[in-house]
């Protein structure tokens, strides 16, 4: 049970800070010099979001964003995973492609977005592609690191008993890379929600990104903030899911190392 | 005990291992360093042979060459009467660190090594379970390696090598990382298993006592480039016991090897000094 109290000890300090911040915010809007069309109070945001007029639309847009996020995240992860495996198994290719991979990350996503729209239209495909492009990089870099930095003694042992290249990949390199993969997956999980929002800004009539823009143009800050809260919650949930999956898959790890 | 069934058919009357004037050097030109200097040795069928030598005498390189990971600059490796120079998979191996995959349970680690060595999956499972029970580690079969103490990990590592179907086992300073007491316990344990199940063993060790206590024959290597300085038959009966450590024959041989190592290493060091 010591583990559970440990989790609570970690959870309650940030929770208190968040609650305190919300209270200050509420106080500032009630007694301060803040106009509600500049900064609505947390209470009015919740009230607006929960109203019969807004809630169903908010949920519909959340669904659309979630779909885009998950498609892009899954697609980007798969692409990153395969690319890493390919580059690892073909070292010549790796030397040629890896620098380009790094360069590609310096092209800003807001620039690629309009191009993709121009080529592929306003459908789901260009948006999923955009999220994929953002997600695959941290995953392939983490994977490649994991595939390469395997334990030298384990490698030597397996080679001594006659393990071939493929067996070495399946039995040693891939399982070892899974450990590293999760650091990439957690990063990509956060990126995927954000890039989905940006993709929705570029042109669609669905999703929280669209709803945010619409509300901002209509001077309805409550709705903008409600979308922001949901986006944060989505991002955190996806991150949490990855952490959970990591814990489930890494049960072989010594318990002490979990804290690190 | 049904080991002998699994042993591959071999050329009759052949040695388990023949190292034929193997030399190995690394680097080029002025940086060329010769590690093995035309070294020859044999391990007979069912024989336990140890190699002792000053540190840095190329024992690790020798194992890499026998295991087929490094090609000798010249010379040949013959295993079971067949040319095996530069080929992997002909030996079973116990490294200095237990080298168990941390994400596989103890039993599944053993099974993996056995299937890589060519055993059928079910056969590997059965054999791993049976032997874990026999050495009293059955309760750890489903545990991950980090739960085990260093000594227990080395037992699993030894078992893995023992159950592999290859005739020749290479043990690379298997107890080097254990404390003195555990080390002695492990030596006795290894002997008890080996003596009822004789395999051909080539052991590398730093410890003269360990070599004498375990082996039929001890090979003393020179400093690098390594050559065989001298070989000694160990005049002790089997089964061996700790009581033999004080036998005059044991003590005399230990003293002899100790002096040989000192002069062997010393001469080379002086020669190296003169070169500079």
Structural summary, described in words:
Chain A has 2 domains: 1-34; 38-259, MetI-like (MetI-like fold, Orthogonal Bundle). In chain A, helix 8 (165-201) runs parallel beside helix 9. Chain A has 10 helices and no strands. With 260 residues, chain A is mainly α. Chain B is an alpha/beta fold and 276 residues long. Chain B folds into 2 domains: 3-90 and 168-275, P-loop containing nucleotide triphosphate hydrolases (Rossmann fold, 3-Layer(aba) Sandwich), CATH 3.40.50; 99-165, no CATH class. Helix content of chain B is 37%, strand content 22%. Chain B has helices spanning 3-6, 59-67, 106-116, 121-134, 150-163, 180-195, 208-214, 248-275; strands at 17-26, 33-43, 48-52, 74-79, 82-83, 91-94, 168-172, 200-205, 217-221, 228-233. In chain B, a hairpin with a 2-residue loop joins strand 4 and strand 5 (82-83). The N and C termini of chain B lie far apart (56 Å). The interface between A and B is medium-sized, with 17 and 28 residues.
């Amino acid at each position: 049970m010591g583990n559970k109290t440990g989790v609570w000890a970690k959870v309650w300090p940030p929770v208190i800070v968040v609650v305190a911040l919300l209270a200050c915010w509420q106080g500032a809007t009630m007694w301060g010099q803040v106009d509600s069309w500049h900064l609505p109070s947390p209470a009015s945001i919740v009230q607006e979001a929960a109203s019969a007029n807004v809630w169903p639309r908010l949920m519909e847009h959340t669904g659309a964003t979630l779909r885009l996020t998950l498609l892009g995240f899954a697609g980007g992860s798969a692409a990153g995973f395969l690319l890493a495996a390919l580059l690892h198994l073909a070292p010549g290719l790796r030397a040629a492609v890896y620098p380009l991979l790094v360069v590609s990350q310096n092209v800003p996503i807001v620039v690629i977005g309009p191009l993709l729209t121009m080529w592929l239209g306003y459908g789901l495909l260009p948006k999923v592609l955009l999220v994929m492009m953002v997600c695959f990089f941290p995953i392939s870099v983490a994977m490649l690191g994991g595939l390469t930095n395997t334990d030298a003694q384990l490698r030597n042992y397996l080679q001594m008993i006659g393990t071939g290249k493929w067996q070495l990949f399946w039995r040693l390199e891939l399982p070892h890379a899974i450990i590293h993969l999760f650091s990439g997956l957690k990063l990509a999980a956060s990126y995927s929600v954000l890039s989905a929002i940006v993709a929705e800004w570029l042109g669609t009539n669905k999703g929280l990104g669209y709803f945010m823009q619409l509300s901002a143009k209509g001077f309805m800050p409550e709705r903008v903030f409600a979308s922001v809260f949901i986006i944060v919650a989505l991002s955190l949930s996806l991150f949490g899911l990855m952490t959970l999956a990591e814990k489930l898959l890494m049960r072989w790890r010594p318990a002490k190392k979990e804290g690190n | 005990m049904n080991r002998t069934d699994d042993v591959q058919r071999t050329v009759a009357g052949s040695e388990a291992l023949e190292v034929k004037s193997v030399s190995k050097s690394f680097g080029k030109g002025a940086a060329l360093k010769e590690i093995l200097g035309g070294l020859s040795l044999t391990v007979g069928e069912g024989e336990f042979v140890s190699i002792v030598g000053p540190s840095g005498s190329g024992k690790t390189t020798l194992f890499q060459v026998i295991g087929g990971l490094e090609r000798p600059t010249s010379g040949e490796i013959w295993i079971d009467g067949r040319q095996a120079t530069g080929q992997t998979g002909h030996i079973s191996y116990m490294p200095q660190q237990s080298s168990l995959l941390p994400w596989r349970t103890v039993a599944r680690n053993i099974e993996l090594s056995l299937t890589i060595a060519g055993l059928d999956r079910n056969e590997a499972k059965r054999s791993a379970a049976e032997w874990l029970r026999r050495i009293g580690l059955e309760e750890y079969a489903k545990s991950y390696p980090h739960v085990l103490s260093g000594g227990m990990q080395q037992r699993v590592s030894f078992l893995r090598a023992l159950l592999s179907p290859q005739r020749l086992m290479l043990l690379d300073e298997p107890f080097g990382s254990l404390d003195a007491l555990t080390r002695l316990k492990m030596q006795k344990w290894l002997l008890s298993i080996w003596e009822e199940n004789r395999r051909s063993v080539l052991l590398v060790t730093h410890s003269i006592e360990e070599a004498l206590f375990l082996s039929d024959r001890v090979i003393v290597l020179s400093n690098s480039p390594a050559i065989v300085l001298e070989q000694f038959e160990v005049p002790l009966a089997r089964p061996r016991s700790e009581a033999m450590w004080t036998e005059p024959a044991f003590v005399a041989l230990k003293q002899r090897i100790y002096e040989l190592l000192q002069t062997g290493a010393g001469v080379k060091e002086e020669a190296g000094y003169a070169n500079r």
